[in-house]
Amino acid sequence: MKNEKVIAIMKARGIRNSIIKSKMLEVFLEESTPINANHLHQKISSEIQVDLASVYRNLHLFKEKGILREVLGGSNESYFELATGEFPLHPHFWCHQCKQVSCLSPLSLEETLWLSSLAKKQKVRSIDLTLKGVCERCLLELERGSSI
């Protein structure tokens, strides 16, 4: 089932199927939060031989074709997540402590339109919204006096 979905996603965007591309998209279907290229490379290189350059090249192909969206973390590190119809635009939270990116609730149409209206006479092509601070898990650890 997962493999059929992966093939359908690539076919709809005119991308030729390959083992590397399929494995990459399978990981994105399994993940619940955005991931960076290194994490993706580690996950798929345990199953197939792939270099980091190929991972980056395919990430940018998927982004260009609208399959993935890029999310910037705290140090402008790129994270990626699925951007197809069933994964609507939503803001993200980047934790300064654990350096993880997490997804927040999707924006309503009204909220998205309001954000777009701030640009006045400019043409908005995309909206990226990342809140930065300390996540709930890290706050609890800090309250307990532990170091993370």
What would a concise description of this structure say?
By secondary structure, this protein is of the alpha+beta class. Helices cover 42% and strands 16% of the residues.
Please write out the topology.
Layout: H1 2-12, H2 19-30, E1 35-36, H3 37-45, H4 52-64, E2 68-72, E3 78-82, E4 92-95, E5 101-103, H5 109-117, E6 130-133, H6 136-143
Parallel strand pairs: 4-6
Antiparallel strand pairs: 1-3, 2-3, 4-5
Helix pairs in contact: 1-2, 2-3, 3-4
Task: Describe the 3D structure.
This protein has helices at 2-12, 19-30, 37-45, 52-64, 109-117, 136-143; strands spanning 35-36, 68-72, 78-82, 92-95, 101-103, 130-133. With 148 residues, the chain is of the alpha+beta class. It has a 3-stranded antiparallel β-sheet with strand order 1-3-2. A 3-stranded mixed β-sheet has the order 5-4-6, with no helix packed on it. The radius of gyration is 17 Å and the shape is globular. The chain starts with a helix and ends in a 5-residue tail after the last helix. Zn(2+) binds at residues 95, 98, 135, 138. Its cofactor is Mn(2+); Fe(2+); Zn(2+). Belongs to the Fur family.
